[in-house]
Amino acid sequence: MTIPYDFALALLRVVTGFILWQHGAQSLLGALGGTAASVFTGPWLVGATEFVGGMAIALGILTRPFALFAAADMAVLYLTQYLPLGFPPIVNRQGEVACLLFNTNLLLAFTGPGRWRVMGAMVPRTTGAGRTGLDRLSLHLPTVLGAVRVFMGLLFVSYGLRKMFGMLGEEAEPFLSLQWFAGIVELFGGAALVVGFHTRWIAFLCSGQMAFAYFINHNPRGFFPIQNGGERAVLFCYFFLFVWTAGAGRWSIDDLRRRRPASARS
Q1: What does the pLDDT read at residue 159?
Q2: Using CA atoms, how far apart are residues 15 and 60, in angstroms rounded to an integer?
Q3: Element (H, E) at 247
Q4: pLDDT surpassing 60 at residue 54
Q5: Alpha-carbon distance 226 to 31, whole Å?
Q6: The whole model's pTM is what?
Q7: Which helix (H) or strand (E) holds 28?
Q8: What is Dmax (Cα atoms) for the chain?
Q9: Are the CB atoms for 208 and 224 separated by under 8 Å?
Q10: 214-235: b or e for each residue (b if 16 or more CB lie within 10 Å)?
């Protein structure tokens, strides 16, 4: 893989691990505005695993097993606590964060930690038949990347529907306002990501918008995304940045165009 791919994967891994660690710190220690769970209860044990697993994922240590646990944790959390409060996920902030963490952790379970990780140079790289155990998940990365891209695109589209048309529980943004133009990127950019059309450059545009939104709207409120409300913007930003380098994966117009014989494209 190229240096941009390795760098984008490392950023996605670090950000996902950092946010997961923050959730663990709330449940385990009562830090960052959270309430500590009773010791040795189910929520406390989950918080402890999120705390340790978040640090491990960020550092690239045992990334696949911790990412699989985190994805399962977020799926159960969403289905049991947030889905009953309403659908789609955008109607509940914490429920949407759980969906985003599910997506990024699931993707990391299939990408693995990448080369830019702690002790990365000491870990031999294997390909194809040389992979064993969880390492073989990488063989299915294009399919999983395609599925996660569709899900993330749909989540992004929901912001455009809200800002431009006043759907999903809020009023539309004023015509030609900065937020209205953001809605255009979210609606049409999200739709392009769902179908996988010109995926790399659309993802780059969407990543830039989310970076701008984070530093304008969230960063002034504090450093930790779990406190300043910027978890969604950060996770969207670095997921889109990764897609810019990795491409659309399966189930995309880009993939279909790439697979067509040269004679059929002429």
Answers
A1: 96
A2: 12
A3: none
A4: yes
A5: 11
A6: 0.92
A7: helix 3-29
A8: 66
A9: no
A10: beeebeeeeebbbbbebbbbbb
The pLDDT tens digits of the residues spanning 139-188 come to 999 999 999 999 999 999 999 999 999 998 889 999 999 999 999 999 99
Share of the chain above pLDDT 70, in %: 92
Chain centroid, CA 248 distance in Å: 14
Structure confidence at residue 259 (pLDDT): 79
Structure tokens at 49: 């695993």
113 CB burial (10 A radius; 0-12, 13-18, 19+): buried
Structure tokens at 207: 């990543």
Question: Residue 53 in contact with residue 109, Cβ under 8 Å?
Answer: no
- DSSP readout, 86-148? -SSGGGSHHHHHHHHHHHHHHHHHHH-S-SSSTTGGGSPP--GGG--GGGGGGGGHHHHHHHH
Question: CA–CA distance from 53 to each of 17, 66, 68, 117 (Å)?
Answer: 7, 5, 10, 15
| Tokens representing residue 7 in the block | 């760098």
Res 206 pLDDT > 80 = yes
Dump the DSSP string for 150-185. HHHHHHHHHHHHHHHH--TTSPPPPTTSHHHHHHHI
Which pLDDT score, from 0 to 100, does residue 1 have?
52
Choose among 64, 136, 142: nearest CA to 106: 64
